[in-house]
Target: Glutamate 5-kinase
Amino acid sequence: MRDKVTTARRWVIKIGSALLTADGRGLDRESMTVWVRQMVALRNSGVDVVLVSSGSIAAGMTRLGWKERPTSIHQLQAAAAVGQMDLVHAWEGSFEEHGFTTAQVLLTHDDLSDRKRYLNARSTLRSLLDLGVIPVINENDTVVTDEIRFGDNDTLGALVTNLVEADLLVILTDKDGLYTADPGRDPNAELIADAMADDPRLDAMAGGSAGALGRGGMQTKLRAARLAARSGASTVIVGGRIEQVINRLKAGEQVGTLLLPEKGMLAARKQWLAGHLQTRGRLLIDDGAVRALRSCSSLLPVGVKAVEGNFRRGEMVVCAALDGTEIARGLVNYGSQEASKILGQPSESIASILGYVDERELVHRDNMVLV
Ligand SMILES: Nc1ncnc2c1ncn2[C@@H]1O[C@H](COP(=O)(O)OP(=O)(O)O)[C@@H](O)[C@H]1O
Ligand SMILES: N[C@@H](CCC(=O)OP(=O)(O)O)C(=O)O
Model:
C-alpha cells in the first residue's frame, strides 16, 4: 500500500505549530534544517514539493515575549504578522544553503472559494513549481476574520493539495501518527498504520483535542485527509521528530498513518484526467500491451514500439495500437527523449540505459484512463 507514497510525484508537506516551535520555545531552526535537507533530497529525486508551514502566531508570541496565547483576534493577527517574518526568513535561509529558492504564498478562504482567484492561485503555484521554486504557504492571518478563517493549517494543506493536484499530503505533527485514542491520555492507544480515509470508525479515535500550540488536533487532520481524497490524493499523518521521516516515507517504510482515498475518488481523478488535459504525444504499443492496458495493467516500456511528439515527464500522452486506434490516455513517467531510449526494453534495463530509474512503468494504471 505504501506504493501510494513512493510513487507520488507531487507532495504537499504540512508542518504544524506544535512541531515547528519546539513546544513554544520559538522556532526550532535545527529541526527546520533537518526537514529542509530531506525536502531537498525529495526535490532532487524529481518530486515536486509544496510546503504548508504553520507557526507564525507561535513564533510571533515568542518574539513579542508573550507567554499565553491571546484570545483577541487582533492580537493573534498582530502576533502572526510578526512571526510570519521569522518563519519565512528561517525557511528561506535554510533552503538557500542548498541552492533552492523559496516563495511566500499567503492564502485566505476567499482566495480558494472564488473561482477566478482560485485559478489565479493555481497558475501561480504551478509556475513556481515549474521554476523549481519551493512555495511556502500559510494562511494570510492578518486579513482574515474569525468567521472565514481556516484556523488550522490541516484544512489549508488539503485545499492546497486539491489546488496543485498533488498525489500526497504529508502532515507532520508531534505524535507518531493517528492512534486509536489520544496517546497523551490513553497509554493503551495503538498507532494505525493504514486505513481508508472515509472509514467512519476513525472519527471516534481522532476525537481528542489539540495540543497547547496546535489548533486542530487529529480531527482536522482526518478531515483534511478526506478533503485531499476528493482529488484522489492519499494522506500520511506522521511524527515530524521521527528520524529521517521524509526520507523513510519516500523509501516506502511504514511510518505514520496512511489514509487512502476510496476507489470512487480515484475514478474522479481519472475523470479529470480524461477531460482536462491536453495530450502532448503518442506511444504506439504492441498487441500484448493493448491487451494488458484493457485488463487495467500499467504500460511498461517493453510493450512500446514507437514514441511520437515532444513531452516531459508528467504530461499527458495517448497510448495507441499500431494501427493508430487510441486505447488509453495517461500521465507519462518519462519524457519523450528518455522514453525513446527505453522503448521495447524490460523495466530491469531502465537503470543501465538511463543511469537512473524513476518508475518501472511508462504510464502507471492509476494515472491512466481507457478510451
Ligand atoms: N487519536 C489521536 N492520535 C494522536 N493524537 C491525537 C489523537 N487525538 C487527539 N490527539 C492530539 O492531537 C495533537 C496534534 O494536533 P495539533 O496539536 O493540532 O498539532 P499540529 O500543530 O501538528 O497541527 C496531538 O498532540 C494529540 O494530543
Ligand atoms: N496560521 C496560523 C495558525 C495555524 C495553526 O496553528 O495550525 P496547526 O499548527 O496546523 O494546528 C499560524 O501560522 O500560526
User: Anything to note?
Assistant: The mean pLDDT is 89. The domain at 3-269 is CATH 3.40.1160.10 (Carbamate kinase).
